[in-house]
Structure formats: C-alpha cells, structure tokens
Amino acid sequence: MKTELICSGFGGQGSLTVGKFLAKAGMQEDKNVSWLPSYGPEMRGGTANVSAVISEKPIASPLVTHPDILIALNQPSVDKFGPNIKPGGLMIANEDMCPNKLNRDDIDEIYAPMSTIAKEIGNLKVLNMVAIGIVLEKTKLVNYDTIEKDLIQFLEKKNPKLLKLNLQAIKKGMEIAGY
Amino acid sequence: MGEKVLMKGNEAVAEAAIRAGCRLYFAYPITPQSELIEYMAKMMPKVNGTFVQAESEVSAINMVYGASGCGRRVMTSSSSPGISLKQEGISYIAGANLPAVIVNVQRGGPGLGDIQPAQGDYFQATKGGGHGDYRNIVLAPSTVQEFADMAGLAFDLADKYRNPVMILSDGLLGQMMEPVEFKPQKTKEELEELDRQHYEWCMYPNEDEPNHHHHEINSLEIDPLVLEKHVEKLSEKYDEIEAKEKRFEKYNIEADNEVLVVAFGTSARIAKSAIDELKEEGKSVGLIRPITVWPYPYEAISEAMTDKVKKVVVMELNLGQMIEDVKLAVNGKLPVEFLGKVGGILFTPEEAKAKILENL
After folding, report:
1. Choosing among A63, A150, A154, which should be mutated to test the B contact, i.e. which has the most B CBs within 10 A?
2. CB contact under 8 A, A39 and B175
C-alpha cells in the first residue's frame, strides 16, 4: 500500500506543514515516508507545495507527479495539480479560495470552506488543520491519535492555546468529512 | 541505533557528522545546503565544537586544511558554485596527505546556475576538480538515511587513507525529509582515541613524542625527484583505495534482465520506481547504483551484463558524465543509451520507464 500526496497553497497557508504532520504520523506508525518540498525562488503570496509519500514498502522516487490525494488550499493548486490526480483519487480543496471547481467524474472532490471554519474557530492559521481532519476521516491514512500526540508534544508547552485551536480544527474537519 | 526522527538530509548529515566526532566546521552559506550550516551553527557550541562562518568558501576550505593538519575531524560543505571555489584547497589537502570531509549539495549549473537538484558536478568530483594528480574518495547517497550514514563512513575513510572524502549529494536529498536513525554519539574516550591515531603525523602538540614539532604539513616540494616519489606514493594509496573501497547496490539484478540501468543518487531512486512498475508488468530490468563514484565499481557493471542483457541505460541529472565510466565498464560490448535532464529539472518515473521501454 502506497499513498502519494501533494499539498499545495499560498506561502504561509501551511501546506508544507500538512505534509509534514501526515508524513511524521506515518513514520510513527512504522511506515516508510518521504517529504519533498518545492523550494524555488518563491515569494510571499506565491505558491508552495510538497510531495509526501506514505508507504508500506521502501520509497523509490519521492517525487509525486500523479497523486492519490491532492490537498489544495488555493485555486492555482487546483488548476495545476487537479488534472494529474490518479483516477479514483481524492481532492480536498479550500472552497473559500477555489471558486472554479475541477468537476472530474473519475475522482472524489471535497470542497470545504476551510478559511471560514478557521476564522470561526478563532485563528485563520489553523485552516490547514481542517484539511488534515478531512484527510484523516476520509482516508484513514494515519490515525487521529498519532497526530494528536504529536501536536501535544509540539505545542503543549510552547502555545497551549494554539494547540487547542489546532485540535478543534482537526475535529471540525473530521466532522465535515463524516457527513 | 536510536529512535527514528523525520529530518532533512542537510540536517541529518550535520547531526551524523557531530556524532562521528566532527568538532570543527567551517563554511559559507549557499542554497540548497543552508540548513546544514544553520544546524552546525546551532549545535557546535553545544558539543564544545567550533563553528566558523568564513568570509568566503576559499577561506573556509583553508581553515579545513589547517584544522586537518592539527589532526582533528573537520568538515565543510557547500553547493556547486561554492565547491568550485574550494577546489584549490582540496588539491592542497590531497597533496599534503590530509583527511577532510567535504559535502556537496549539488544544484543546477554551470556558473551560478539555479538552486534546484542536479548532478552536474560528477566530473569535478570524480576526475579531479583541482589541479594535479590526486583523487577524492566520492560517496553518493540516495536516501536521507544513507546521507547521514555516510558522514561517519566519510570520516573513517578520510582518516584511514589520510585523504579528502566528498559526499556528493544534491538539492533533493538536502531538502527532503525522511526518517533517520542515528548512530550513538562517540564517547570522550573514543574521541581521544581518534586524536591519538593522528599524533604520528599531525601538528598537535604531543609531549609523549619528542619529535612532534618536526612533523611537516606541506604540499610544496620544489625538488622534482622528491615530488616524483611523493606523487608515486599517493598513487599507491589510490590503488589501495580502488582495490578495497568500491561500493555499490544491486537492485533487481537477475539472470533474466534484459536492460541494465546504471544511475547514482537521486537518479537511482527515480529509476527504481520505473523498474518496480516494469517488474509488475513482467519486464525484468536491473539497476546498478554506484555508492562510491570514485573508486568506481566498473566490475559490478560488467558482471551484471549477462547474455540476456541487450542494452545498458544510464540516467543522470546532467548532460551525460557518469556515462563515460559506464562505457569503460561496458567496454564496447553493448550499446549504452542515456536519459538526462539539466537545469535542475528531475526526470519523472514515467520518463525513466519510457526510456527503458524504448530499449527493451
């Protein structure tokens, strides 16, 4: 079993972090993982994306060209990577920033107003965690408990308030995907 | 081995170097290896080591020369344009018979090029780079774990042969995160023992040896007859390295291989994806991945060329550099095809697969 992801969005939206948390959780569940960022001469407001692979077997190429899952936090990400999603794959898009839908009938497309949800929770920064929540519920790629444990370790001392918001955002994402 | 951590190649090789006893590091920042110098800046003070951001790459490599002459484990790192600047110093270090570890996180060239992954420094790393008859041992990692493991290996080989060792990585391996397990930190006793092994030739003050201050660290020998002897001695060392230190990985090498792929580092990873897919389709393709690109594992390639192999395909992120070594190994017995990408662009697993299918 091998799952290839691309997480993409504007710089600052946290798409690289989505990939990192998922890859790290995969590692903690004893899977092989890789995380390969785009690191071009990007500027603030430009696009940032990461290829992440979570696999039972050792990972050969870490470069993802045809993802099983695309997490698109903005419109350019949908336009750029949407057409390359594997048939039968999944796209999770931030509805607030992706007005033009992909409308492929051979993949599953989920549009969620991640920015709005994040603002409701109280911090726009946690919109990427809404995306993680949807991935967790929809694909069971990694376990919620693994991500929660990692987040607690990462944020409990540094910023307990932000930790609470992050966990809230993930749960909200899971809720949306559950409908 | 400890717990697995998710780390960038640049950081992993720095951590592994410290654990292997590197306490001196001199460098100048450059993308895509900057996380390496940043990690060293952060960690060296914590292990009572010395970190210096030099005013230039030339200065950094000469600091390495000096520190190595004092018998300590020392490292520098850079990316392609910076490695070019270090070549004079590397030649001096090789000429003076000194150990040192140099990490090259390659980017697109020539000139300043770009900051994306490339393998365009193969010639420079394996065929010389600086002036004069000398060789670097060159290790080419293809995973973050291997990149980290090579730090310890590089220091051991450098000490064993008193020779510069280069780790020839690239921007992909430097920037990518993968799980890594580290070897334990060397103990104080082990570090002292490493130092002691250098006392017989280094400039380190050693009261036990009355002649210690007579050791000479030099790459200048104005008498041609003396220089001749010196270079011949270096040559014997290189012969020994060629006899003992060739390393490679065989991947899917079987008696029924129809195509043999040769690729190193990042290229080899992409090639593996293509080979795996072809295997599922019932096509047998083998891969030889040189781990040392000098000394080069020529025999591994010629031995994998069984009667069924029709063609050899070389894949590199350059215009075709290692292909010259592959042709030496193939020795005209089979056609050698090439897939390359330049400008810091990677070829995809699909392109690798298509290239193999063309030649099946």
Report:
1. A63
2. yes
Q: Domains in chain A and their CATH numbers?
A: 2-178 (3.40.920.10)
Q: What is the CATH number of the domain that holds B315?
A: 3.40.50.920
Average pLDDT over chain B reads: 95
CA distances B42 to B23, B24, B49, B100, B188, Å, are 13, 13, 11, 21, 21
What digits encode the pLDDT tens for the residues B304-343?
999 999 999 999 999 999 999 999 999 999 999 999 999 9
B251 in reach of chain A (CB within 8 A): no
Inside any domain, residue B238: no
Q: Does any CB of chain A come closer than 8 Å to the CB of residue B261?
A: no
User: Distance from first CA to last CA of chain A, Å, rounded?
Assistant: 26
Sheet of B24-27, strand order:
B50-53, B24-27, B74-78, B100-106, B164-170, B137-139, B292-294
Statement to judge: residues B169 and B283 lie in one domain: no
Residue B270 shares a structural domain with residue B180: no
Residue B218 is assigned to a structural domain of this protein: no
Q: Which residues on chain A place their C-beta less than 8 Å from a C-beta of chain B?
A: 20, 23-24, 27, 32-37, 39-41, 59-63, 65
Q: Is B177 on the interface with A (CB under 8 A)?
A: yes
Residues B131, B119, B57, B159, CA torsion sign: negative
- Into how many domains does chain B fold? 2
Interface test with A, best of B3, B114, B176 (most A CBs within 10 A): B176
**Residue B32 scores a pLDDT above 90:** yes
Q: What are phi and psi of A126, to 5 degrees?
A: -85, 10
Cβ-defined contact of B178 to A39 (cutoff 8 Å):
no
Is B160 in the same domain as B283? no
Of A23, A35, A61, the CB nearest to B349: A61
| A36–B346 CB contact, under 8 Å | no
Q: Pick from B161, B196, B231: which residue ends a domain?
A: B196
pLDDT average, residue stretch B126-138:
96
Range of the structural domain that residue B18 is part of: 5-196
Q: Do A40 and B270 touch (CB under 8 A)?
A: no
With 80 as the cut, is the pLDDT of residue A110 above it?
yes
User: Are residue B252 and residue B189 in the same domain, yes or no?
Assistant: no
Between A33, A39, A63, which is nearest B178 by CB?
A33
Q: B196, B213, B229 — which closes off a domain? A: B196
